[in-house]
């Protein structure tokens, strides 16, 4: 942590009408600077997780059905710098002669791209494009990939319109985009969560 970051936090405290030297706030600039380093680690390209992949059918079994993952995510709105958080729903259909993902990699990539100031619409694109590229080998991309992110945005809930509600963003590639039956299977899987 640098003194510059701590001074910036002190200035913000003063701007909102606080006394950064009062007892309860004396350590706050250091804590906030340390927290920023953690929650905005997505700006550090060296922190991007390595995506482990395996060749489909390495052990003689070919996976040609939908594989899905779901979990929580947390990010910050680039317009007001307040959190938005929710659930992601990811699925893909591997190419029979392509690759499959290591189990924890989707969540790690979601966390990495979420760890910066974002808009949800861009976030879904960045995650899907990264994973699509990782799984594409010798002209054999996955047969389908989709991601839905559903989140509550505190910039809407606690300020401005002050309304609860969730925003949903979607990115579909392959047969999830072009085949109505495949798309319906993906969306039905989400309804079952």
Task: Tell me about this structure.
With 193 residues, the protein is an alpha+beta fold. The chain has helices at residues 3-15, 28-39, 105-114, 120-135, 154-157, 175-178, 180-191, and strands at residues 53-55, 67-77, 83-93, 99-101, 117-118, 144-153, 167-174. The strands form 2 sheets. The protein has a 5-stranded mixed beta sheet, with helices on both faces. Strands 1-4 form a two-stranded antiparallel ribbon. Helix 1 (3-15) packs across helix 2 and helix 3 packs antiparallel against helix 4. The chain is elongated and about 65 Å long. The model has no long low-confidence stretch (mean pLDDT 94).
Unreliable parts? none
Radius of gyration: 20 Å
Structural class, from secondary structure content?
alpha+beta
| Major sheet: arrangement of strands | 5-2-3-6-7
- Multimeric state of these chains? single chain
Large-scale geometry: elongated
Average pLDDT metric: 94
CATH fold node name of the largest domain: GTP Cyclohydrolase I, domain 2
Task: Supply the key terms.
7 helices, alpha+beta, GTP Cyclohydrolase I, domain 2, 37% helix, two-stranded antiparallel ribbon
Helix and strand arrangement:
Elements: H1 3-15, H2 28-39, E1 53-55, E2 67-77, E3 83-93, E4 99-101, H3 105-114, E5 117-118, H4 120-135, E6 144-153, H5 154-157, E7 167-174, H6 175-178, H7 180-191
Parallel strand pairs: 2-5
Antiparallel strand pairs: 1-4, 2-3, 3-6, 6-7
Helix pairs in contact: 1-2, 3-4
């Amino acid at each position: 942590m640098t003194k510059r970051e701590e001074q910036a936090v002190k200035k913000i405290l003063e701007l909102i009408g606080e006394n950064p030297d009062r007892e309860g706030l004396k350590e706050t600039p250091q804590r906030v600077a340390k927290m920023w380093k953690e929650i905005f680690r997505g700006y550090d390209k060296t922190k991007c997780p390595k995506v482990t992949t395996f060749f489909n059918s390495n052990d003689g079994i070919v996976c040609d059905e939908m594989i899905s993952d779901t979990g929580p995510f947390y990010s910050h709105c680039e317009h007001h710098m307040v959190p938005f958080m929710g659930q992601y729903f990811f699925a893909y259909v591997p190419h029979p002669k392509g690759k499959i993902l290591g189990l924890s990699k989707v969540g790690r990539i979601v966390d990495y791209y979420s760890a910066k100031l974002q808009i949800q619409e861009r976030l879904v694109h960045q995650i899907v494009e990264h994973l699509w590229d990782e799984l594409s080998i010798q002209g054999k991309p996955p047969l389908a990939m989709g991601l839905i992110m559903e989140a509550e945005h505190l910039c809407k809930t606690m300020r401005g319109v002050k309304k609860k509600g969730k925003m949903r963003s979607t990115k579909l590639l392959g047969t999830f985009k072009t085949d109505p039956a495949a798309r319906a299977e993906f969306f039905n899987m989400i309804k079952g969560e």
